[in-house]
Specification:
Layout lengths: L1 H15 L3 E17 L2 E17 L4 E14 L1 E19 L2 E16 L2 E19 L2 E8 L1 E6 L4 E5 L2 E10 L1
Antiparallel strand pairs: 1-2, 1-10, 2-3, 3-4, 4-5, 5-6, 6-7, 6-8, 7-10, 8-9
Length: 171
């Protein structure tokens, strides 16, 4: 029994040797302007997505982002999302880490008195520039994303949709 506890303690110390929590997030602004036959329209979207997670080692991490965005055009479309993910880092080149994330979560969109909920999952490649052991710049995009929003029957497959740029603080 003592050997079992000793073995578990050694494994726990080994797993915890590199483990660390991180927090950060992204902020974004998107402006789309279109015109046709003398009519023009502009949509402005502002979003913020705080993020937190836990790195098990140099290759694997789990985390979640909580996103809030507002798109203004003809009324304000508000979106709230909770997106947990698993991140696998597949290459370390100097201070740059290249990773892929599998994310699966929940979203809610509303405009005026109407709202819909849905599920989101996707594959998101990206990279982190580690300026020091406690601070990194994060960039990622959506390679593949599937969304289903109830009440609208919308299925959205996208390749390379959007680009996130943010920071990460490790502690």
């Amino acid at each position: 029994m003592k050997k079992l506890f000793l073995a578990l303690a050694v494994i726990a110390m080994g797993l915890g040797a590199h483990a660390q929590f991180y927090a950060g997030g992204t902020i974004g602004l998107d402006v789309i302007s279109a015109s046709q036959d003398g009519e023009s329209s502009t949509q402005t979207t502002f979003g913020i997505a705080p993020e937190f997670g836990y790195s098990f080692n140099k290759s694997w991490a789990v985390g979640a982002s909580i996103g809030f965005s507002v798109a203004s055009n003809n009324g304000d479309l508000k979106t709230v999302s909770i997106l947990p993910y698993v991140r696998g880092t597949f290459a370390h080149v100097g201070i740059v880490d290249f990773f892929g994330e599998f994310a699966f979560g929940y979203g809610h969109q509303s405009i005026e008195d109407y709202g819909v909920s849905g599920v989101i999952f996707g594959l998101r490649p990206g990279f982190a520039i580690n300026f020091n052991p406690k601070f990194a710049l994060i960039a990622r995009t959506n390679l593949f994303q599937y969304e289903y929003w109830d009440g609208l029957n919308v299925v959205d497959f996208s390749i390379n949709k959007g680009f996130d740029l943010g920071v990460q603080f490790k502690f």
